[in-house]
Amino acid sequence: MTRKLDPRTKVFLLIVINVVMMTGKISGVFFYVRLAMVAIPFIIMLKNRMYSGAGIYAAMYTYVFVLEGYTMVSMNRVLLTVILFTTGLVSRFLAGGMMAYIVMKTTTVSEFVTAMERMHVPKVIVIPFAVMFRFFPTIKEEWEDIRNAMKMRGIGAGSGSIMQKLEYVTVPMAMSVSKIADELSAASMTKCLSVKGKRTHIAKVGFSWQDLLFSAIAIAGLVMHIFYGGAITG
Fold it and tell me: 216 falls in which pLDDT band (50, 70, 90)?
């Protein structure tokens, strides 16, 4: 069985990827730094057998990088602006968004809480994030239930006005969100997340050679970003 990455490593990778991709240059030496940052979520998805997501992710970035390279050739100024704007948004936000999805998808609440407590992170920070880890998956389940309920009542893509469809979705979703928030808050209290003192944990977390490898790549990319990506320029 392949060992999972430590939650602390995934959070660190999430921070570094967002900093490097959103604030760095897109050309020169830094292009290879960006390529390394883009490769990290792709490799982790392959490692966790998320093959369809990895394929879509790779296809989107291949398209973006090819298009960005093509725009270096002289072309219509308006078209150039539109292409750079759209590709820039995708290239800067997609890697960080995918890494956030990986963190949410592959990390349990118990693993996250255990890892954060080992780092002595204040509970005022840990508890909201622990609730968030269950909030978004639960919202997704509620959304699927609402869609199925709409289909059973004959409310499909071709029936009813836009305002009616919006009402059928937003009203039950708003009620579900309020209910889910209360239930998750109660669950966190039941699990004694707010109790002071040392707690025992069933979840096993720890660093492996994979954590060291990904962290080394991220640190190297961050250093290159500082000296070549715009933070410090020669």
Answer: very high
pLDDT of residue 177: 76
C-alpha separations of 180 from 78, 90, 141, 142, 183 in Å: 47, 32, 11, 10, 5
- pLDDT category of residue 104 using cuts at 50, 70 and 90: confident
- Within a domain: residue 57? yes
What residues have CB less than 8 Å from 83, skipping those under 6 apart?
Answer: 67, 71
Return the pLDDT at 1.
Answer: 45
Task: From 200, 182, 179, select the one nearest 191 (Cα to Cα).
Answer: 200
In this structure, the answer to whether residues 174 and 81 fall within a common structural domain is no
Among 76, 139, 102, residue whose Cα is nearest residue 7: 102
pLDDT on residue 72: 54
Provide the token pair at 184: 């998750």
How is residue 6 annotated by DSSP?
P
The stretches of 71-122 forming alpha helices (DSSP H) are 77-106, 109-118
Mean pLDDT of the 85-97 span = 84
How does pLDDT run across 155-192, given as a tens digit for each residue? 665 556 677 767 777 777 778 777 777 776 676 666 66
- Residue pair 87/68 in contact by the 8 Å Cβ criterion: yes
Q: What is the 3-state secondary structure (H, E, C) of 134-188?
A: HHHHHHHHHHHHHHHHHHHCCCCCCCCCHHHHHHHHHHHHHHHHHHHHHHHHHHH
Domain membership flag for residue 197: no
Q: Which two tokens stand for residue 135?
A: 């909030």
User: Can you give the residue range of the structural domain that contains 176?
Assistant: 121-190
The single-letter code of the amino acid at 93 is F
